[in-house]
TrEMBL record:
UniProt-recorded name of the protein: histidine kinase
UniProt organism field: Enteroscipio rubneri
Single GO MF descriptor: phosphorelay sensor kinase activity
Entry keyword set: ATP-binding, Coiled coil, Kinase, Membrane, Nucleotide-binding, Phosphoprotein, Transferase, Transmembrane, Transmembrane helix, Two-component regulatory system
Catalytic reactions on record: ATP + protein L-histidine = ADP + protein N-phospho-L-histidine
Coiled-coil features, chain-numbered ranges: 170-209
Length: 410
């Protein structure tokens, strides 16, 4: 019942002002029609006016009061659409024959029907139109002739139907505009979420790259510094070589980090400064492992860099570098083997050692194996890290190189 009496919509002061203006405008239009019908402007022939029952007199105050009853309630039409419609229509039907020679304007009920069609459902709009048509058909038209009465009734019914169609059309248009605006807002939110996701992925990628650079380089510096410390007294020349290697390693790490900072600072304009170390530097890892006292070997006879996209090649080296760093830091191994090959559109990298191994579950909280696994996953590949049956540890990465790849990406 509350939904029938009150339309639960938010009304701003501007909405109330618009409805009040509509009510006043409807009243003024009705007054204009009364004055025209009561004058000789519409039908100048006196005999015809008398035949039709039209008198040439000024409407009394009671006529304007009756008109006000059918129009001024429109000031609350959007908050109380049904009560306003029923009140204005009943007032119109009951008062249209109360004044001899005058016919009230139906503009008030017409605007009320428009409001129901615009604000409420199609079913309610159809009910309002049906009630209005029935009321107009079975009420007595204010005219002495059947033809004029029929014309007046038909005109009023047409106005009611047109008002209902206009209200429904505006309601449909408003719903369409709201749907378009909602889709635009959703698209904007989705775009913002996608941008945030990309930023987060880039942040993780940068963190992974920085970790790879610093972990590998600092491990090498630590190993070489320890060697220099052992050799400084008994073999100064070898100690100098170790110190030179420390300096070269540190310089290379600083260059890589500067390049990455340049990318962050200048964006794509500095893309040419980004580190692009690929599998052509795997020999450096063998040397790195050798300086740590680990006998290392590399088997890349089955690998062709020209058939692998650059980003995949760089990722493979990053995984190999992280695995080599883990061997130096954790494995206590004597030997290590790096193998790289292309197998049916996929690049397969295996790094294994004969050390003591370590618990993979414990490493999930760090950036080593988890970083390698995330790097492989982002490229659509897989990474497995587990103990070898014969002892030691093995890291196996399989990355897709792309179907039909003929050359390296720029």
């Amino acid at each position: 019942m509350d939904n029938f009496l009150v339309n639960n919509r938010a009304m701003t002061p501007k909405d109330w002002g618009v409805d009040a203006a509509v009510a006043v405008m409807a009243f003024l239009i009705g007054c204009g029609q009364l004055m025209l019908a009561a004058s000789s402007i519409v039908i100048p022939d006196l005999a015809m006016r008398q035949y039709l029952g039209i008198v040439n007199v000024v409407p009394s105050a009671s006529v304007f009061v009756a008109l006000a009853l059918t129009t001024l309630p429109l000031a609350v039409r959007r908050r109380f659409p049904w009560p306003v419609f029923l009140f204005t229509f009943v007032a119109f039907i009951g008062l249209q024959n109360a004044f001899s020679g005058f016919s009230l304007s139906i503009i008030g009920p017409v605007v009320a029907v428009y409001t129901i069609a615009c604000e409420l459902s199609r079913v309610e709009a159809a009910i309002a139109v049906a009630l209005a048509v029935l009321g107009l058909v079975f009420s007595e038209a204010p005219s002495r002739t059947a033809s004029l009465a029929f014309f007046t009734r038909a005109t009023n019914i047409a106005l009611v139907a047109a008002a209902a169609l206009g209200g429904y059309a505006y309601r449909t248009h408003r719903a369409y505009v709201e749907a378009v605006e909602q889709r635009a807002e959703e698209a904007e939110r989705a775009g913002a979420q996608e941008a945030a996701r990309r930023v987060e992925e880039e942040r993780v990628r940068i963190a992974r790259e920085v970790h790879d650079i610093t972990a590998h380089s600092l491990s090498a510096v630590s190993v070489q510094a320890a060697a220099a410390e052992r050799l400084v007294d008994r073999d100064p020349a070898a100690a100098k070589e170790a110190i030179a290697a420390v300096r070269a390693t540190a310089k290379g790490a600083l260059d890589d980090i500067r390049s990455m900072i340049g990318v962050l600072r200048h964006g794509d304009a500095a893309a040419d400064m980004a580190p692009t170390v690929g599998t052509d530097r795997l020999d450096d890892l063998v040397v790195y492992l050798g300086k740590a006292g680990i006998v290392a070997s590399l088997d890349d006879a089955g690998y062709d860099r020209s058939r692998v996209p650059a980003h995949v090649d760089v990722a493979l080296f990053g995984i190999a570098r992280e695995a080599a760093t883990n061997i130096v830091r954790h494995a206590h191994a004597k030997t290590a083997v790096l193998s790289l090959a292309l197998e049916g559109g996929r690049a397969r990298l295996v790094v294994e050692d004969d050390g003591r191994g370590f618990d993979v579950a414990d490493s999930e909280h760090g950036h080593g194996i988890e970083g390698m696994r995330e790097r492989a996953r982002l490229l659509g590949g897989t990474l497995e890290a587990d103990a070898r049956p014969a002892g030691g540890f093995r890291v196996t990465a399989v990355l897709p190189t792309g179907a039909g790849t003929e050359g390296r990406e720029a």
